[in-house]
């Protein structure tokens, strides 16, 4: 099965979304208590009320900048660290305990610990970074370890320059591993980042809006902001993966 066929099969179908919305509406009507389960119609109305407000866009901008910033920092650090780990075995040995520890510790524990050292406004940056770094580091490291040693030896024999090696040897091999890591890390990044904001409660953040909705039992707001989080995460993931796919296709055409 080709990658194009897999993408088509994995694409979300409108009819499936519509069926789930109908099920949600029916269950909400059956319960009859919006404080327990609000209807999709009520959530849509609340979204229409929130979107035109300055507070809505202020909260969205605050969280987007910090969570995506944490992801991008982790991407740069993960790729760099993987490159150093392949070249210097001591670097890989040094980072191994750190990566295993970060993978094992629950997000809530990290949030509380980091909150002692970092202001709540920057908490989501650090948490997003910590959640993404191990994934991208290990994926890129695996990609570099799978490099064809004969091709690398040929590059050394013919004394190919570093840009040429990067363009024709490393990027085609590593980008698929990097893309796979990103597809996993992007969703986790948003989940962890918003969870950090809910605990740290920085002003004018999506996490603060979720916390207030919980405190005041405002279920329409809770669901509306959850829909916003899902939409932002999905849009950012699609844009970033689209950029990587375009880069891969450009490299293939240049061969």
Structural class comes to mainly alpha
The N- and C-terminal alpha carbons lie at a distance of 24 Å
Mean pLDDT: 85
Number of strands: 0
Order of helices and strands: HHHHHHHHHHH
Largest sheet: none
Description:
This protein has 255 residues and is mainly α. 84% of the residues lie in helices and 0% in strands. α4 packs parallel to α7 and α4 (54-87) crosses α9 (162-200). The two termini are 24 Å apart. The mean pLDDT is 85. Belongs to the binding-protein-dependent transport system permease family. The chain crosses the membrane at residues 12-31, 56-86, 98-117, 123-141, 177-202, 222-244. Keywords: Cell membrane, Membrane, Transmembrane, Transmembrane helix, Transport.
Q: What layout of secondary structure does this protein have?
A:
Layout lengths: L2 H8 L3 H18 L8 H11 L3 H34 L1 H16 L2 H11 L5 H23 L3 H9 L4 H39 L5 H10 L3 H35 L2
Helix pairs in contact: 3-11, 4-5, 4-7, 4-9, 4-10, 5-7, 6-7, 6-9, 7-9, 9-10, 9-11, 10-11
């Amino acid at each position: 099965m080709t990658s194009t066929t897999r993408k088509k099969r994995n694409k979300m179908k409108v009819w499936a979304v519509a069926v789930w919305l109908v099920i949600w509406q029916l269950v909400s009507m059956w319960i009859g208590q919006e404080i327990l389960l609000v209807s999709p119609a009520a959530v849509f109305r609340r979204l229409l009320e929130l979107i035109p407000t300055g507070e809505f866009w202020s909260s969205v901008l605050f969280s987007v900048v910090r969570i995506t910033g944490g992801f991008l920092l982790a991407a740069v650090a993960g790729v760099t660290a993987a490159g150093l780990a392949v070249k210097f075995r001591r670097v890989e040995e040094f980072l191994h305990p750190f990566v295993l520890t970060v993978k094992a510790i629950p997000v809530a524990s990290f949030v509380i610990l980091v909150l002692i050292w970092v202001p709540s406004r920057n908490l989501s940056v650090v948490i997003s970074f910590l959640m993404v770094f191990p994934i991208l580091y290990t994926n890129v490291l695996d990609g570099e370890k799978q490099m064809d040693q004969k091709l690398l030896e040929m590059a050394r024999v013919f004394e190919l320059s570093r840009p040429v090696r990067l363009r024709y040897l490393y990027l085609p091999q590593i980008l698929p591993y990097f893309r796979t890591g990103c597809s996993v890390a992007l969703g986790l990044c948003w989940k962890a980042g918003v969870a950090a904001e809910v605990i740290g409660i920085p002003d004018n953040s999506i996490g603060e809006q979720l916390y207030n909705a919980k405190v005041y039992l405002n279920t329409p707001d809770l669901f509306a902001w959850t829909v916003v989080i899902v939409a932002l995460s999905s849009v950012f993931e699609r844009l970033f993966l689209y950029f990587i796919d375009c880069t891969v296709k450009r490299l293939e055409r240049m061969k």
